[in-house]
Amino acid sequence: MCIFLTILTGCFPVFNWQGSDENKTGEGKSMLKDIAYRNKTQDSDSYTVYIQEKGAFEPFLVLSSDYEGGILLLRKFLLEDLISYSDSKSYGSKGGYYPKSNIDYYLNNNYILQFSQTLQNKILDTNVSVSTLESVEGEVV
């Protein structure tokens, strides 16, 4: 399963589009930090933002308004691209190590290009806690 998490600066305006075409024009602009999940108790649409990917708007869930100084987003639907986790390596041969996976490479080098340059510039580098390479050695028990 491919999950894409995006970290954006909190002052970045996005369209809080809830399905009507007129809101895509900019009238419904909101600040991400104002619609983050932790600030809402309503239904999931209250913390859904739409971000343009390759010309089409895709829904992202706002998970946190304060994640390492930015906004944490989760793409609501899986990507249609089929990508192997690792080329010919099994879990037992260290194929389960995320920093060397095809998914990590794809998200950081290919998928990010689907966003406008302005949005790419707003995506923050963040630390992802990953076990050491040695922790993925051996057979799955």
UniProtKB/TrEMBL annotation:
Q: Give the source species.
A: Acetivibrio straminisolvens JCM 21531
What is the name attached to this protein's record? DUF6273 domain-containing protein
Q: Give the Pfam families listed for this entry.
A: DUF6273 (PF19789)
Domain DUF6273: where? 76-138
Q: What domain of life is recorded for the organism?
A: Bacteria
Task: Kindly give the InterPro entries that the UniProt entry links to this protein.
Answer: DUF6273
